[in-house]
Design brief:
Helices cover about 40% and strands about 15% of the residues. The protein is α/β, with parallel strands linked by helices and about 425 residues long. Helix 4 packs antiparallel against helix 11 and helix 13 crosses helix 14. Bound molecules: pyridoxal-5'-phosphate (PLP).
Length: about 425
């Protein structure tokens, strides 16, 4: 059934191994495979489909634009579609939040916007090293990969990944260790071997790293430390941004103002490639073309990205988002309570980015497999894939949310039962 892929597509493919089907159609929070089987999407394109698959408003606008022979590819030429996006992003997102940024369109991947942020921070400060955190994920190109924590990913580089200082994220050593004091001591001590970095690059909620949430206070102290050291603060909001944690930017709750913000995944709102670096205006010291790229002008994405901003004008969108997040959070708290006497499970997250920490990698992987067999697409994350990642489209209906949560519960029940009765032995068990 999958021979074409197995024989001809590179071994590098990954998600398709966890979700073996040939997908054909998608709408909102649902996907269908070629046999007509329905799946509820609790993964949302790794956070690239916050407004759901084939969102009607975005699709109609895009079809109209194409039909009228609107510019599709435009390098960084001025286009009407780009102008409208820039103006509305400024008026709908930035101005109401009292944020002032220049907009830089980079190549369309998240990794590329991270590369731009790292380059600019080094250029602005004249320093080479960037501070990144344990369990951080910033992409796969060499600069972004250096800032990424996971060894399995870093190994692929084939060369030394350098010029990154690794520091412990909030709560890395558990609640009793204040990692920010530790970091501050290391950097300010003249004999520690650590220098002030060009920048700190941080995810406020670590997506790939296991849904680790930095506290408001920790983020505020990090922002203060960065200022004191003359280092820039880069928030990588590629996954946690665009509404995923309940506000447009994930750092709004903490009340901090980063120097640079990386956006990508759900920025276009339609799953079209588009990335943008927000730059505090004084720091915009690029020479023309110093970070260039052929695909910085995906005008189809500008069209859908502008239409997606309409959601942020409607108060009902935020109210629904809050209700859905509360519902998900309550259900997960309930699950933790339910399993308390059987096995300790933890939940963590913000908004519609939540994790359930399973007792082992094998159990998490088994839950994902079982959920898929019952029609729910549920990914795992964390250092060894031990965390179930719950990340539905922000626009999911309460019926689909409930249906998926029920399947996930059943799958956890079954996986824990199987693990307790050890009538399954998986490869990851054997490796442990
Ligand atoms: C996905 C992701 C990236 C990389 O984006 P790509 O488009 O895959 O290159 C970088 N940072 C974070 C936080 C991400 O989630």
């Amino acid at each position: 059934m999958f021979e074409t892929f197995e024989n001809l597509e590179s071994c590098v493919r990954t998600y398709c191994r966890d979700f073996p089907a040939v997908f054909k159609r998608a709408k909102g929070a649902l996907l269908w495979d070629e046999r007509g089987r329905k799946y509820i999407d609790f993964f949302a394109g790794a956070g690239a489909l916050n407004y759901g698959h084939n969102n009607d408003a975005l699709k109609e606008g895009l079809l109209k634009y194409i039909h009228e022979d609107g510019i599709a590819h435009g390098l960084d030429l001025h286009t009407e579609a780009k102008q409208q996006f820039i103006e509305e992003f400024n008026s709908i997102i930035l101005i109401p939040r009292k944020l002032k940024f220049r907009l830089m369109f980079t190549g369309p991947t998240g990794s590329n916007v991270v590369e731009a942020a790292l380059k600019l921070a080094r250029k602005v400060t004249g320093r080479t090293n960037v501070a990144a955190f344990t369990n951080g994920y910033h992409g796969m190109s060499l600069g972004a990969l250096a800032a990424t924590g996971a060894n399995s990913k870093r190994r692929g580089a084939g060369i030394p990944l350098s010029n990154i200082d690794r520091y412990p994220f909030d709560n890395y050593f558990g609640p009793d260790t204040d990692t920010l004091s530790y970091i501050e001591r290391l950097i300010t001590d003249a004999s520690s071997g650590f220098d002030a970095p060009a920048a700190f690059i941080v995810e406020t909620v670590q997506g790939e790293g296991g849904i680790n949430v930095a506290s408001r206070e920790w983020l505020q102290r990090l922002a203060r430390l960065a200022r004191k050291l003359g280092s820039l603060l880069i928030v990588d909001d590629i996954q946690a941004g665009c509404g995923r944690t309940g506000r447009f930017f994930s750092f709004e709750d903490a009340g901090i103002q980063p120097d640079l913000v990386c956006l990508s995944k759900s920025l276009s709102g339609f799953g079209l490639p588009m990335s943008m670096l927000l730059i505090r205006p004084e720091l915009d010291i690029w020479e023309p073309g110093e970070h260039n790229g052929t695909f910085r002008g995906n005008n189809l994405a500008f069209v859908t990205a502008r239409l997606a901003l309409d959601y942020w004008k409607a108060p009902s969108f935020l109210q629904n988002l809050k209700q859905t997040s509360d519902r998900l959070n309550a259900d997960l708290q309930d699950a933790v309570e339910h399993y308390r006497d059987i096995v300790p499970i933890k939940t963590r997250g913000r908004g519609l980015l939540h994790g359930l920490v399973m007792p082992s990698t094998a159990v998490a992987s088994r839950v994902s497999t079982l959920a898929f067999s019952k029609g729910v697409i549920l990914e795992t994350c964390g250092p060894t894939g031990e965390v179930l990642k719950l990340m539905p489209p922000l626009t999911i209906s309460s019926d689909h949310l409930n249906e998926a949560l029920e399947v996930i519960r059943e799958s956890i029940d079954r996986a824990l039962y199987d693990a307790a009765n050890s009538d399954f032995v998986s490869n990851s068990d054997l490796n442990q």
